[in-house]
Each structure stands twice: as C-alpha cells, then as structure tokens.
C-alpha cells in the first residue's frame, strides 16, 4: 500500500504545486516517501488530527471554522492545529478578518501526510474513518469485504496494482467543483479462517 495514511491528506498532484515541507523529489522528479520523524508520527497518531487534515484539504479553514464543523471547543482544536502546523502537515495562510472583525488565520493541508510512512497503528485511521462514516447516510455507503487466498507472488501483484490505481487517482488534478469522496482501504491477514497446513 502507498502509505500507512493513504487517505489522510492527498491534494492536487505535486507537478501542479510545490512539494510539501520536508519532502524531497526522487530521481524521477516525483516526491519520495520517507519514514516519519518521531514528532510527525505523534502528530498523525490522532483520529481528530486526521479529520482536521481532511477538513482543510480543499479549502483553507480557520480554527473557529474547524471547531464548529467538529462540534468542539476552539481552544481544544487550536492545540491540534498547532501540532499539525509545527510538523508541516498544515500551513498557516495570511490572516483575514472573521466575524465581528476579529483577525483569524486560515489553515490548509500541505499534502505531506501522503508522503510519510508512520509506525503508528491503525487506530487513528479507524477513528477518523468511523467518525466521518457516521455522518453519511447508510444508503450512500459503498462497501465491500473480500476474503482472498493468494500465493505470495499474486499478493504482491494485488498490492502493486492497488497501489498504482490509488496513486493514479491521487495524481490527477483536483476539480474544486466536483463532489468530494473518501476512500478507506485495509489489507490484512485474515485471522477468521484457518491457515493452510505446511
């Protein structure tokens, strides 16, 4: 799979924008994925922070706007926003005047989480996924669960083709007028069925 955080933060292709902070181009000019630093891994080890990255993916949002969307206290959200800014996953844009003339800073996802591997478990991803899914009417869920038995070479082919498909759609230009969709993919050993005997 392309990353342990494949759906967190995937903006328009790098060819149409600057590289995210801390991400270097590879020999082919495309960004290279790398291991997350300890600080980056800690920043991404939160379902709430992953949701913030998703919220600020297509349009910059202020701390107040993020807090209102999530139904949380702005002071609580600000701690998470600052953590994401400090680690380069969010960028602060030029301040603007908000309601009642208050100075507010909008934040935008940088796309960096797509390019870092993190050793954190799946819990933050699942938390973010389940929170977002809970807000979608059941008739709009398109889900499938599949049990496979694949020899090693076919499993590698499956992973490679799935990775290529996801990367292809990640790299396509984003249409700001199009309807937003979310994809969650998990491939894991199936512990509910007996393994073949040697």
Automatic annotation (TrEMBL):
<protein>
    <submittedName>
        <fullName>Helix-turn-helix protein</fullName>
    </submittedName>
</protein>
<feature type="region of interest" description="Disordered">
    <location>
        <begin position="1"/>
        <end position="37"/>
    </location>
</feature>
<dbReference type="InterPro" id="IPR011991">
    <property type="entry name" value="ArsR-like_HTH"/>
</dbReference>
<feature type="domain" description="HTH arsR-type">
    <location>
        <begin position="39"/>
        <end position="134"/>
    </location>
</feature>
<dbReference type="InterPro" id="IPR001845">
    <property type="entry name" value="HTH_ArsR_DNA-bd_dom"/>
</dbReference>
<dbReference type="GO" id="GO:0003700">
    <property type="term" value="F:DNA-binding transcription factor activity"/>
</dbReference>
<dbReference type="InterPro" id="IPR036390">
    <property type="entry name" value="WH_DNA-bd_sf"/>
</dbReference>
<dbReference type="InterPro" id="IPR036388">
    <property type="entry name" value="WH-like_DNA-bd_sf"/>
</dbReference>
<dbReference type="Pfam" id="PF01022">
    <property type="entry name" value="HTH_5"/>
</dbReference>
């Amino acid at each position: 799979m392309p990353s342990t955080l494949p759906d967190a933060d995937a903006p328009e292709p790098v060819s149409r924008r600057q590289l995210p902070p801390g991400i270097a181009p590879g020999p082919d000019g495309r960004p290279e994925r790398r291991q997350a630093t300890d600080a980056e891994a800690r920043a991404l080890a939160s379902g709430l922070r992953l949701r913030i990255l998703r919220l600020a993916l297509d349009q910059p949002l202020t701390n107040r706007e993020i807090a209102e969307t999530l139904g949380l206290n702005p002071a609580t959200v600000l701690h998470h926003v600052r953590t994401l800014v400090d680690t380069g996953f969010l960028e602060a844009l030029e301040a603007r005047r908000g309601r009642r003339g208050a100075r507010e800073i909008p934040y935008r996802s940088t796309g960096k989480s797509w390019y870092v591997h993190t050793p954190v478990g799946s819990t933050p991803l699942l938390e973010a996924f389940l929170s977002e899914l809970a807000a979608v009417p059941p008739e709009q869920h398109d889900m499938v669960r599949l049990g496979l038995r694949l020899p090693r070479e076919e499993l590698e082919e499956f992973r490679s083709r799935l990775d290529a498909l996801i990367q292809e759609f990640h790299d396509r230009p984003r249409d700001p007028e199009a309807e937003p969709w979310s994809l969650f993919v998990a491939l894991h050993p199936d512990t509910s069925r007996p393994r073949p005997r040697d």
